[in-house]
């Protein structure tokens, strides 16, 4: 974390070692791969409660992510307040009406059709939690002086990936919703103007009749997304 005046490097012995031998590493990596393949973005939620302790632990996992210059340019607002969730849903659906009513190109709408998205966003109020991910565009030190953050989109993206994996590990589901523009979110969540909301994750348990788009099970083969030299 950035602190004014700290300009020298100090080495610290590696505090944790989790390395495995070759056999155990293969077993662990393939088991994790198989478990992550069971992760799905879900729009149909149960109203079953999720303990705050679970949400806290998942966010704590997220903020352990690496970041540019270790500035940690993120904030996670966890919302269970029904009135706040209703306001977010209302604003999101208003934006979606504009999007589907002419704001999006025919090509974009055609690409979304197999996903089954639409104007209605009941998951934003049914899910017991919404986690709003904020990106801190610049920081402010203890003296009120502004400082630059580095690789903000990349850092926040990595932390959000950690969060999604942690939620899945806890047996929960989520959905990646990108607010556009929903500029009221920083004020609603008590965040400063230097922070921008980049994602809303409805979080909870899937409904008994939850479905996913069939196309979501189509993944590119490994040889198309990986090169080994």
From TrEMBL:
Instruction: Recall the GO molecular function terms of this protein's record.
Output: oxidoreductase activity
From the UniProt annotation, give the residues forming the signal peptide.
Answer: none
Q: Where does the chain cross the membrane?
A: none
InterPro entries attached to this UniProt entry? Nitroreductase, Nitroreductase-like, Nitroreductase/BluB
Domain Nitroreductase, chain residue ranges per copy = 37-205
**What sections of the sequence does the record tag as coiled-coil?**
none
Query: What keywords are assigned to this protein?
Result: Flavoprotein, FMN, Oxidoreductase
Q: Which domain of life is it from?
A: Bacteria
This protein is called what? Nitroreductase
Source organism (scientific name): Thalassococcus halodurans
Taxonomic lineage per UniProt? Bacteria, Pseudomonadati, Pseudomonadota, Alphaproteobacteria, Rhodobacterales
